[in-house]
Amino acid sequence: MTSFDQARAAHAQGALARPALARHALAKINLFLHITGRRENGYHELDSLAIFAPAADRLYVERTGACGGHAILTLKGPFGDGLTAGEDNLVLRAVHALRATVADPAALPDLALVLDKRLPVASGIGGGSADAAAALRLAAAAWGLKKDGLAPIAATLGADVPVCLAQRPARMQGIGEILSPAPALPPCAILLVNPGVAVPTPVVFKAWKDSGAPFRPPARLPARWDDLDAMAADLRETENDLQPPAIALFPVIETVIEAIAAQPGCRIARMSGSGATCFGLFGTEDEAKAAARRLAVREWWTEAGALPDDTAF
Ligand SMILES: C[C@](O)(CO)[C@H](O)COP(=O)(O)OP(=O)(O)OC[C@H]1O[C@@H](n2ccc(N)nc2=O)[C@H](O)[C@@H]1O
Ligand SMILES: Nc1ncnc2c1ncn2[C@@H]1O[C@H](COP(=O)(O)OP(=O)(O)OP(=O)(O)O)[C@@H](O)[C@H]1O
């Protein structure tokens, strides 16, 4: 038997995954984040505009195996060392949560998954949440399950997982689970910079609470922005409420924001989520990429590119 025949036989037995069994987990960026209230369970109510940047982890099925509906995970990529591939990894938690909704899980094929971890961990761009959402989409495809059952599972995995499941620009409210369409975005490019400090989300929310800052009203947004200057002007009327407490804990974040803001063509620079990743918005991909090259010399993690337009989702 030739190796081609062996591969074909293995495919026929389901022992090799089709190459299409892969999903991208895009970085989530909070263009603003207002804390509007607090629930009895300690979670904060938010008003935020989330978009997805052209930087992503990649999750794929390396092979399928005997039936049982179990999954194993292997990590690779520049940030794979910062995580463990055990049961606490959000990828496996998501697959288990999906399996638990299936009437006959023993009939599902086992999945050997690989996570190519390219987004920094605990960095305010929802990498773990995006991985969990990608795992739900990927396992549903591998197991032939409908996608419409995934949203309720996503909400049990973390506040950012619902928006990452949709993976398109969205207004986030409630604790993150109430999603509505974002204003239509103008063509523009984004630069992401992370100075290499891991920032735990609960610590920043707690620091915000301890600071005694008041709740803020929701933002007023138009239905669309025709150009980046209009969008940047409106965003300047908003804040990331988690930015001051994050800077108080990790002053390097302010240095990053100042460095991004000083780049030619930058219209607005701000922190995303609970930090430490900061973003800058630019008119062109060339400007954003030139800024990324200049800032990478500090050994900061940088990514830049055009924002995916609506047709990309
Ligand atoms: C800061 C954001 O990234 C903005 O998109 C999210 O609100 C955080 O999303 P996430 O990391 O998926 O959050 P979770 O894993 O659900 O929660 C982590 C911790 O953050 C705090 N948390 C999170 C979300 C929220 N609306 N209020 C909170 O107070 C809680 O202390 C919680 O224990
Ligand atoms: N696949 C995963 N990728 C990243 N983090 C994971 C993963 N699985 C579990 N975690 C844990 O989740 C925590 C949050 O990591 P993540 O990278 O999602 O943070 P974040 O970017 O700050 O998220 P957010 O913006 O949603 O607050 C970390 O403590 C990490 O150990």
Automatic annotation (TrEMBL):
<feature type="domain" description="GHMP kinase C-terminal">
    <location>
        <begin position="229"/>
        <end position="295"/>
    </location>
</feature>
<dbReference type="InterPro" id="IPR013750">
    <property type="entry name" value="GHMP_kinase_C_dom"/>
</dbReference>
<keyword id="KW-0808">Transferase</keyword>
<dbReference type="InterPro" id="IPR014721">
    <property type="entry name" value="Ribsml_uS5_D2-typ_fold_subgr"/>
</dbReference>
<feature type="binding site">
    <location>
        <begin position="120"/>
        <end position="130"/>
    </location>
    <ligand>
        <name>ATP</name>
    </ligand>
</feature>
<dbReference type="InterPro" id="IPR020568">
    <property type="entry name" value="Ribosomal_Su5_D2-typ_SF"/>
</dbReference>
<dbReference type="GO" id="GO:0050515">
    <property type="term" value="F:4-(cytidine 5'-diphospho)-2-C-methyl-D-erythritol kinase activity"/>
</dbReference>
<keyword id="KW-0414">Isoprene biosynthesis</keyword>
<feature type="active site">
    <location>
        <position position="28"/>
    </location>
</feature>
<comment type="similarity">
    <text>Belongs to the GHMP kinase family. IspE subfamily.</text>
</comment>
<dbReference type="InterPro" id="IPR006204">
    <property type="entry name" value="GHMP_kinase_N_dom"/>
</dbReference>
<dbReference type="GO" id="GO:0019288">
    <property type="term" value="P:isopentenyl diphosphate biosynthetic process, methylerythritol 4-phosphate pathway"/>
</dbReference>
<keyword id="KW-0067">ATP-binding</keyword>
<dbReference type="Pfam" id="PF00288">
    <property type="entry name" value="GHMP_kinases_N"/>
</dbReference>
<dbReference type="InterPro" id="IPR004424">
    <property type="entry name" value="IspE"/>
</dbReference>
<dbReference type="InterPro" id="IPR036554">
    <property type="entry name" value="GHMP_kinase_C_sf"/>
</dbReference>
<comment type="pathway">
    <text>Isoprenoid biosynthesis; isopentenyl diphosphate biosynthesis via DXP pathway; isopentenyl diphosphate from 1-deoxy-D-xylulose 5-phosphate: step 3/6.</text>
</comment>
<feature type="active site">
    <location>
        <position position="160"/>
    </location>
</feature>
<dbReference type="Pfam" id="PF08544">
    <property type="entry name" value="GHMP_kinases_C"/>
</dbReference>
<keyword id="KW-0547">Nucleotide-binding</keyword>
<dbReference type="GO" id="GO:0016114">
    <property type="term" value="P:terpenoid biosynthetic process"/>
</dbReference>
<dbReference type="GO" id="GO:0005524">
    <property type="term" value="F:ATP binding"/>
</dbReference>
<keyword id="KW-0418">Kinase</keyword>
<protein>
    <recommendedName>
        <fullName>4-diphosphocytidyl-2-C-methyl-D-erythritol kinase</fullName>
        <ecNumber>2.7.1.148</ecNumber>
    </recommendedName>
</protein>
<comment type="function">
    <text>Catalyzes the phosphorylation of the position 2 hydroxy group of 4-diphosphocytidyl-2C-methyl-D-erythritol.</text>
</comment>
<feature type="domain" description="GHMP kinase N-terminal">
    <location>
        <begin position="89"/>
        <end position="165"/>
    </location>
</feature>
